[in-house]
Design brief:
19 strands; Alpha-Beta Plaits
């Protein structure tokens, strides 16, 4: 990326407004490998929502394009921006502004690390009921903006379900709020849900308010080792008919292992969880399994959660396959037919409650970008899945591949609507394109 013309004037204006900035690169070592953001000559460090708004207003006045950034875990998602004059680093907006233990509500800055928020809530016996990838690095704002997935999404949903309100800064420097502190807080269009998954393209999130839940008394899972090509469909109806549905039902396939792993997880009261585990053991018959407490079995949980982590270099491609409740998950053999040469499967996991299969592939050598090999393979796979009414979504990958293929699975009407919203909410193009605009 070539130096931005007049960037010294921008720095001078920021300083005159009391805004901190630095020439140092973002501390996330992966940030920029794919987007050339290591060459961006400026990182602005606002400390409040008002300072974020001021930074954006100055950018609008000078015709700048800013890219908001948190922990950097979602940078290889969305369409790469064609231009970035400065990074808008939200790391200092990390305060927990309000917590009502009685109302189960917390209001937090967008730069707060998810793990820090969970640890704070744990002291009150509460938590946000999601388990996203990279919890130590990811920020609340980044998780909302990138629509990060969760291991328990099939039962508890993603962060969007628990979002009560947001405060955002727009490209012209105005601050607005949407939602509030209660569930029934809007009439008309629910704007705060629009920002979920918008990749920072519509506005910059500065605060979020969530509904939290009590921590369960018990959280345990059964781990069953099965063959890669086992048919799980006969097992699903009795598992889903249990008095308490599983909190997670995940099937992880890893080519480096001789067997695949099925996780059946329950959360709730001690006696209720134990009852579900006992009934599961009967359903499994003579199949061997292990029972783990989730706290002590974190290494196993992490092996599942790692499949959801987006790749952050040019070697990795990640996509998901979405299918209907009355359909079978795509088999190992079916997906393998469309694998691009030179990019062996790194991991695959099916969420049997969500009916989604996650696939991650990594090129064999550092000098072999995975996107080149996958461009035609993704087209073929999308066509094959469409014939069985399943949908393919590219989650992350090299920049060139995302520019060409990131709207896989998105119909033209939705694309037109979202492009219109991008134009309406950020007419000057101060913010990056996300997956919708053309900036």
């Amino acid at each position: 990326m070539t130096p931005v013309a007049g960037i010294e004037d921008y720095k001078t204006t920021l300083t005159s407004q009391g805004l901190a900035w630095t020439d140092e690169p973002h501390p996330c070592s992966n940030l920029g490998k794919d987007l050339a953001l290591t060459d961006v000559p400026l990182r602005v460090l606002p400390e409040t929502g008002e300072q974020v708004a001021t930074t954006l207003r100055i950018a609008a006045d000078q015709g700048r394009c800013l890219a908001p950034v948190g922990g950097g875990t979602g940078w290889c998602a969305g369409t790469p921006p064609a231009r970035v004059d400065a990074l808008l680093d939200l790391d200092r907006l990390s305060a927990i502004h309000e917590h009502s233990r009685e109302d189960f509500v917390v209001r937090v800055g967008a730069g707060c690390r998810f793990h820090a928020l969970q640890e704070f809530l744990r002291e009150s016996g509460q938590h946000l009921p999601i388990e996203p990838p990279c919890p130590n690095q990811a920020t609340v704002g980044g998780l909302i903006g990138s629509a990060a997935r969760s291991l328990r999404e099939g039962s508890d949903g993603n962060l969007r379900r628990h979002l009560l309100g947001v405060r955002v800064a727009h490209g012209d420097g105005t601050l607005t709020t949407a939602g509030g502190r209660v569930v029934k807080n809007v009439s008309g269009y629910d704007l705060m849900k629009l920002y979920h998954g918008s990749m920072g393209s519509l506005a910059v999130l500065v605060e979020a308010t969530f509904r939290v839940r009590p921590l369960p008394a018990a959280d345990r899972f059964l781990l069953v080792q099965l063959a890669h090509d086992v048919d799980l469909e006969p097992l699903l109806p009795p598992l889903l008919d249990l008095p308490q549905s599983p909190a997670a039902l995940l099937f992880r396939q890893h080519p480096g292992e001789t067997r695949s792993s099925l996780m059946i997880r329950f959360r709730g009261g001690e006696s209720a969880v134990q009852q579900q585990l006992d009934q599961c053991s009967k359903l499994l018959g003579g199949v061997e399994f292990e029972v783990h407490d989730t706290d002590t079995g974190q290494s196993i949980v992490e092996s599942f959660r790692a499949v959801l982590e987006r790749g952050q270099d040019s070697r990795t491609v990640q996509f998901s396959v979405h299918y209907r409740a009355n359909q079978r998950a795509p088999s190992w053999q079916t997906l393998s037919r469309f694998e691009a040469p030179g990019t062996p499967i790194a991991s695959r996991m099916t969420d049997l409650l969500q009916r989604v299969t996650w696939c991650k592939y990594v090129a064999e050598s550092d000098g072999d970008p995975a996107g080149v090999a996958w461009e035609s393979s993704l087209d073929e796979l999308e066509n094959a899945l469409a014939r069985v009414e399943a949908r393919l979504v590219l989650q992350s990958g090299p920049a060139d591949l995302r520019r060409r293929s990131f709207r896989l699975g998105v119909d033209s009407a939705t694309t037109a609507l979202m492009e219109g919203l991008k134009t309406a909410l950020d007419p000057q193009g101060v913010l990056p394109s996300g997956i919708w605009g053309a900036s």
